[in-house]
Design brief:
The chain contains 5 helices and 7 strands, in the order αβαβαβαββββα. The protein is an alpha/beta fold and 175 residues long. Strands 1, 2, 3, 4, 5, 6 and 7 form a 7-stranded mixed β-sheet that branches. A hairpin with a 4-residue loop joins β5 and β6. The chain is elongated and about 75 Å long.
Length: 175
């Protein structure tokens, strides 16, 4: 075999490997994801937290009709903010929520009166008490309160099924 043929085979092999990787990543995404109507999406504006474990804990007794609960850090949506703006739930501080007020809807059963709407208190630094502390990293912003907010465009909030509220209840009950 001459050098030209070896380089041609190497390029062909590399192209096949790249095509295979793309195909399998697409299949993996297709198999492990769910359409928005069967999925609850929660984003937390934290860098380091146990998001995979939190998703598993929330999925243990998922609301009816929900196949998948996806928990992600905000950084996960750097290239495409579309899914981030359409999330069901957000974990943020008041300051973070003020920056993203157009994404946040009122809590279930309330009219929109505040800007941004009121959230559910998850962690109070004055008392040191919070929920889901074994999963969320509240120490990332010491001295700030953390809240759970509902997404304005959530397909599961309020009269659209209530799965977001049920997931919020489960999150606030976690240790």
């Amino acid at each position: 075999m001459n050098k030209r043929m070896i380089f041609r085979l190497i390029r062909y092999g590399a192209a096949c490997l790249a095509a295979s990787a793309l195909l399998w990543s697409w299949i993996f995404t297709f198999v492990t994801d769910a359409p928005p109507e069967n999925k609850i999406t929660l984003y937390a504006d934290m860098r380091a937290f146990r998001w995979t474990e939190l998703a598993i804990a929330l999925e243990e007794d998922a609301p009816e009709g929900i196949r998948f609960i996806q928990v992600r850090p905000f950084a996960h949506a750097l290239m495409d903010s579309g899914p981030l703006t359409r999330a069901d739930l957000y974990v943020m501080t008041e300051a973070q929520a003020a920056e993203r007020r157009e994404w946040i809807g009122p809590p279930p059963g309330e009219e929109e009166r505040e800007d941004p709407p009121r959230g559910i208190l998850l962690y109070d630094p004055q008392t040191g008490e919070g929920c889901a502390e074994s999963f969320l990293n509240y120490g990332e912003r010491p001295g700030e309160r953390w809240y759970l907010y509902f997404g304005r465009q959530s397909p599961h909030a309020g009269d659209r099924g209530g799965a977001a509220e049920e997931t919020a209840r489960r999150l606030t009950a976690l240790p």
